[in-house]
Design brief:
Elements (H helix, E strand, L loop, with lengths): L4 H7 L1 H26 L1 H21 L12 E3 L11 H9 L2 H10 L6 H21 L5 E3 H17 L7 H18 L1
Parallel strand pairs: 1-2
Helix pairs in contact: 1-2, 2-3, 3-5, 4-7, 5-6, 5-7, 6-7
Length: about 180
């Protein structure tokens, strides 16, 4: 049976991936419009978090074939499921909250700490895993998923670390670095 219409777009991995690609120009337009009102940095961070995270979390909430028929399964032993995961599954888990890790410190100064990003990502990931269990989606709620989601957000946070500083602070930091380099030479 081939799914068509909304069931294809919102009920399959392929449909959601295609929808993300098709929505990219719209996301860029929204970021541009918001950027004119709120500033480019804020707008890009807000749109980036929503554009990336919502579809990926949606994908994790798609039910498997026996959803509702079997009770939820839980795996609380770290690294047990990791050895059986396929590489695309590992990469997917690393990417789910990567936009949160990358953009949240840019948007919210209170989150400009790797520790805070790790805590936020872990809390979001635990929420998703609990929802998968409670909704009986025929998925395994695994501590390994939480670990991978959290590590992905942490790595993304480290990748954006240099942009966390406010522009005024960044100018002072550049001046300090220049002065230090001038003193060395």
């Amino acid at each position: 049976m081939r799914l068509t219409g909304l069931r294809f777009w919102f009920g399959t991995y392929t449909g959601l991936a295609e929808l993300m690609v098709l929505a990219l120009p719209l996301a860029a337009l929204v970021a541009w419009i918001l950027g004119r009102r709120r500033g480019t940095r804020t707008a890009l961070a807000e749109v980036g978090i929503v554009y990336w995270t919502v579809p990926l979390v949606w994908m994790t909430m798609l039910p498997n074939s026996r959803a509702g028929l079997v009770p939820g399964r839980v795996s609380l032993v770290p690294f047990r499921d990791l050895v059986t995961m396929s590489p695309p599954q590992i990469v997917g888990n690393l990417l789910i909250f990567a936009a949160v890790g990358f953009f949240a410190p840019l948007r919210f100064a209170a989150l400009a700490s790797v520790r805070r990003i790790l805590l936020l990502a872990a809390a979001c990931s635990v929420t998703v895993e609990v929802a998968q269990y409670v909704l009986q989606l025929d998925r395994v709620s695994s501590v390994d998923d939480v670990l991978l989601n959290t590590v992905g957000a942490g790595l993304a946070a480290l990748a954006s670390y240099r942009w966390w500083l406010r522009p005024a602070c960044r100018g002072r930091m550049k001046n300090r670095i220049r002065a230090r380099n001038a003193a060395r030479s």
